[in-house]
């Protein structure tokens, strides 16, 4: 009997404040969509880091005749200088940081250049003599790049020490900024959702103040009186969370899995499985926001 009464009160509240409930659903949907997008973006960043950090190398470019670096004043790197660099990379001092080393001569550098820029305007614009020889170093820990750079930056015969992590860090920084923007928008929208939930509950409580007064007179507890109002907000927020999860699933399924994955094959992309892991968190977050907002509002405005 009590359960049926609570359901009837919830239905009455949802009907009386239908437009406000729809507003709560929409605002919750938008805010949780941004929260979910930010979470999925962080998952994607993690996938990319795991892939690229396993492949990045430090390139120690050697001096050529036309090099302008202060360490190249004597001209192109000599065989003795190359041997010194190779011995240093295989020394006990650097062994804990270096996993693998291989030497790339000018012919190999030209071949890799042609493969990398095949079909572009840069293809065929250089000759093998214009490309420097280099030592390609794979590190045990890619984040220890500075050790290699400091060791070889002023080494005779070395023109430049370049780490592929530098442009990766810039890419990940941009993605982190996008995540922060998404979270910022989500926070603003969540605040709007909290205010809307509070307003909806307050209007619902005001429109039913006579009924709640009668319930109080017949001995109903505060929890029993407040329960229908709280559930109204929770239901609206839960619907918004489900819609947000559905929108994220559709975006990942149709855009990422069915379209983007066929065009980007160099690293792993997020999938609908990741959305299924994020969705419960969105549902819990939406319910908590609505429940807390409802309880706080009822304590302030439900005076009978």
From TrEMBL:
Keywords: Cell cycle, Cell division, Cell membrane, Membrane, Transmembrane, Transmembrane helix. It is a multi-pass membrane protein. NCBIfam families: FtsX_actino. Part of the ABC transporter FtsEX involved in cellular division. The chain crosses the membrane at residues 21-45, 177-203, 224-255, 275-298. Forms a membrane-associated complex with FtsE. It holds the Pfam family FtsX. This is Cell division protein FtsX. The keyword Zinc-finger does not apply. Residues 185-303 form the ABC3 transporter permease C-terminal domain. It comes from the Bacteria. Residues 56-161 form the FtsX extracellular domain. Its main location: membrane. GO terms for biological process: cell division. Belongs to the ABC-4 integral membrane protein family. FtsX subfamily. One of its GO terms (cellular component) is plasma membrane. It is found in: Cell membrane.
């Amino acid at each position: 009997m009590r359960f049926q009464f609570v359901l009837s009160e919830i239905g009455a509240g949802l009907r009386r404040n239908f437009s406000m409930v729809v507003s709560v659903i929409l605002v919750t949907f938008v805010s949780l969509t941004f929260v979910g997008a930010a979470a999925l973006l962080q998952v994607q960043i993690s996938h990319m880091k795991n892939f690229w950090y396993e492949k990045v190398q430090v390139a120690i470019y050697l001096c050529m005749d036309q090099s302008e670096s202060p360490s190249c004043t004597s001209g192109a790197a000599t065989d003795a200088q190359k041997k010194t660099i190779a011995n240093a990379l295989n020394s006990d001092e650097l062994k804990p940081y270096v996993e693998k080393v291989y030497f790339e001569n000018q012919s190999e550098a030209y071949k890799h250049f042609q493969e990398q820029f095949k079909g572009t305007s840069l293809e065929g614009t250089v000759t093998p003599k214009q490309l420097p020889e280099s030592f390609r170093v794979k590190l045990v820990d890619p984040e220890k790049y500075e050790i290699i750079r400091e060791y070889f930056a002023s080494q005779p015969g070395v023109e430049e020490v370049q780490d592929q992590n530098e442009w990766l860090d810039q890419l990940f920084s941009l993605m982190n900024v996008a995540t922060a923007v998404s979270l910022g928008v989500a926070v603003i929208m969540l605040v709007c959702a909290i205010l809307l939930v509070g307003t909806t509950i307050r209007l619902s409580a005001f429109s039913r103040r006579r009924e709640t007064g009668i319930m109080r007179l017949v001995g109903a507890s505060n929890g029993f009186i407040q329960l229908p109002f709280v559930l109204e907000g929770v239901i609206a927020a839960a619907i918004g969370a489900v819609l947000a999860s559905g929108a994220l699933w559709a975006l990942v399924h149709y855009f990422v899995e069915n379209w983007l994955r066929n065009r980007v094959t160099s690293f792993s992309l997020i999938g609908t499985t990741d959305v299924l892991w994020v969705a419960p968190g969105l549902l819990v977050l939406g319910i908590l926001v609505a429940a807390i907002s409802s309880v706080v509002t009822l304590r302030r405005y439900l005076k009978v």
